[in-house]
Amino acid sequence: MRLKQEIIEQKAKASTHAASDSNTGVGQSGGNPSSSYVSNSTNLAESFISKLLKKPFMIFVIILCLFWIFKLPSMFLLGTVFSDNKNTNGYYAYGGNYYYNYYSDWYFYNDADDEWELTSVDNKPDLLKPKKAKEHFLTSYWSGEYSFSPIEKSKVYYDRIAPEGYAESGYYKVDDKDYYRIDPYDNDTWYYYSSDLGDWDHIEYSNVPDELKKEYDAEDFYYVPNWDSSTQITDFADSESYRLYEQDHYVSSSSDDSWDDDSSSSSWDNDDDYDYSWSSSDSWDSGSSDWDSDW
């Protein structure tokens, strides 16, 4: 009887376990809760991406982000390469000689003629490679400590580097005619002395003698920076042309910085209670104060 009871209890327990397994899915086709979670996550991600791709704006944003992700590093690398591929403008010492670089144009100092000349450094790799050239770099600007002349004093400088028409301010004389230049960098500031007018008159740059259109040549015709009575020419600063030039270039510009603003209402000539009449009886030299008295 007891054995029969144990058999019945074992069958009941087995039936209970079977029902539990069917509810949880364990034991059916090798089911696993974690694999089911991974499958659901993958489906959600694919669904999200497919929804994004259906929107043109989001596609554009994604492409733009990908472009910058891959483009910026390459742009940085290219920028580094190109920035290192330029020599500094200035003077260099190489192989016992002096060179000048100006935006990849190289000039050689001819010590015998005391002149700079356009040259090629193709056979001088140390000057072609910026990192190597830095070892031979002297200075960007000439100073008296160097034995070579500044390139600004050479003909090639005015032929290839200096602005067109540059000439120092001052008086020039070409073919017994007198000229005056105001602004070295402004080609429209040439004047000539007109014997008909008995005064200085403006001259168009196209009519200026060729000898004066380049400073290197103009130096041969430059005789005084300022008026000298020995030249028997009237002072340009006293001419009507100069007055008009001053009026156009200074009066108009200074008007922008005029004192004519809101603060001008506080004039020095205003009448207020603090005005003092020096002719009044309240003289500083009145008898009430003896300035010679002992302090």
Summarize the topology.
Layout: H1 2-24, H2 33-53, H3 56-83, E1 90-94, E2 97-102, E3 105-110, E4 115-119, H4 125-128, H5 130-133, E5 137-139, H6 155-160, E6 170-174, E7 177-181, E8 190-194, E9 199-202, H7 215-218, E10 222-224, H8 240-254
Antiparallel strand pairs: 1-2, 1-5, 2-3, 3-4, 6-7, 6-10, 7-8, 8-9
What does the largest sheet look like?
A: 5 strands, antiparallel
Strand content: 15-25%
What's the alpha carbon Rg, rounded to whole Å?
A: 46 Å
Number of DSSP-assigned strands: 10
Order of strands side by side in the largest beta sheet?
A: 4-3-2-1-5
Number of helices: 8
Low-confidence stretches: 24-30, 77-83, 259-295
Apparent shape: elongated
The class by helix and strand makeup works out as alpha+beta
The SSE string, one letter per element, is: HHHEEEEHHEHEEEEHEH
The termini sit apart by 143 Å
Outline of this structure?
By secondary structure, this protein is α+β, with helices and mostly antiparallel strands.
Describe this structure in words.
The structure is a single chain. The protein is an alpha+beta fold and 295 residues long. Among the domains are: 52-80; 90-160, no CATH class; 170-252, no CATH class. Helix content is 36%, strand content 16%. It is built from eight helices and ten strands. It has helices at residues 2-24, 33-53, 56-83, 125-128, 130-133, 155-160, 215-218, 240-254, and strands at residues 90-94, 97-102, 105-110, 115-119, 137-139, 170-174, 177-181, 190-194, 199-202, 222-224. The strands form two sheets. A five-stranded antiparallel sheet has the order 4-3-2-1-5. The radius of gyration is 46 Å and the shape is elongated. The termini are far apart.
